[in-house]
Amino acid sequence: MALYAVGDLQGCLDPLKHLLEQVRFDPTTDHLWLVGDLVNRGPASLGCLRYVRALGDAATTVLGNHDLHLLATAEGVRTPGNKDTLRPVLDAPDAAELLEWLAQRPLLHTDPAAGWTLVHAGIPPDWDLETAQTEARRVEAELRDPARRHALFEVMYGDEPTHWDPELAGYDRLRYTINAFTRMRYLMPDGGLEFAGNGPPEDAPDTLTPWFAWPGRPSRGLSLVFGHWAALGHRRGPDWLSLDSGCVWGREMTIARLDETRDPYQIRTWRAACG
């Protein structure tokens, strides 16, 4: 059995199919991890949802910020923006089934046997794996309950709070967790989440630190695989692997085989262009 992880789809279905053909993916024996953001900006958001859902137990995807935006839009909390490509999903005859399936996806997935943890953007600097799992479950419980989901989406948008505090309560705590798991890239000098910067680390001001480079973060050593950061692209660190190589922006989609080694520097990858 092979374990693969693929970067952000964002509505780009053909590159995913090409990559799975290239690695001879067999859903009866192999497993595919997706870093989230299945939808939006690309031409086939509806097709991506249908395809990944149809893989059943052969696929595990975490939620990304665009996935949550789709769910919030479906709840009437947001209207599609000029750059959104969500209307085909919202108008589809199977929209209710697809959206409910999406709402049941986790924010974080870990597999101790494989030695990898999957998340869309990252794990914030104050959290170890146990804390990350606990806080993910808090949000997932809200998302998976149709009676509570709408209220969460009404307060989900916003950049505050930027700092973790175990005493955070209610929607402030949930919003911090959502932002950390699905929007985080850089940290401020005091460890607060910073959302304005989205360029590559080599172009960032000295006041900003990539979350994975934060000194002494408790999640160090977890072997994390994530996406979300197209400007970072496909890179490998001592205990992390980034896979969003900007397919929806005219670059390529990246898939990596994770089960051959736990050393990110020895992982085999394949790429497929968006066009």
* Sheet with most strands: 5 strands, mixed
Query: Roughly what fraction of the amino acids lie in strands?
Result: 15-25%
Compute the gyration radius: what is it?
17 Å
**Any idea what the CATH architecture is?**
4-Layer Sandwich
H and E string: EHEHEHHHEEHHHEEEEEEEE
Overall strand count: 13
How many domains would you count in the coordinates? 1
Mean pLDDT value: 95
Say what the CATH topology is. Answer: Purple Acid Phosphatase, chain A, domain 2
Helix content: 25-40%
Order of adjacent strands in the largest pleated sheet = 3-2-1-12-13
- Low-confidence stretches at least 5 residues in length (pLDDT < 50)? none
**Terminal CA distance:** 30 Å
CATH homologous superfamily label: Metallo-dependent phosphatases
CATH class: Alpha Beta
Number of helices: 8
| Overall form | globular
SSE class: alpha/beta
Describe the structure.
Helix 6 crosses helix 8 (170-182). This protein has eight helices and 13 strands. The protein has helices spanning 13-22, 45-54, 65-74, 87-90, 95-103, 129-143, 146-156, 170-182, and strands at 3-6, 31-34, 59-61, 108-111, 116-119, 186-187, 193-194, 209-210, 224-226, 235-236, 240-242, 252-257, 269-273. The strands form three sheets. A five-stranded mixed beta sheet has the order 3-2-1-12-13, covered by helices on one side. The protein has a five-stranded mixed beta sheet with strand order 4-5-9-11-10, with helices on one face. A three-stranded antiparallel beta sheet has the order 7-6-8, with no helix packed on it. The protein has 275 residues and is an alpha/beta fold. It has one domain (3-273): Purple Acid Phosphatase, chain A, domain 2, CATH 3.60.21.10.
